[in-house]
Amino acid sequence: MALRLVDSVILPLNVTHYAFELENYLDQLSEQASAWSLPANVFTCSNRVAAIATDTKGIDLKPLRNSMHSLQKAALSFESEQVKSEKELLRAIDAWKHDSVLHRAKEILREAYCKIQKALGHPCEPIKDGNHPLQDLKNAMQRIQAINQKLMLFERGFLSDSGIQGREWYKHLGVAPGKWLGTFLP
Question: Does 150 reside within a domain?
Answer without folding.
Answer: yes
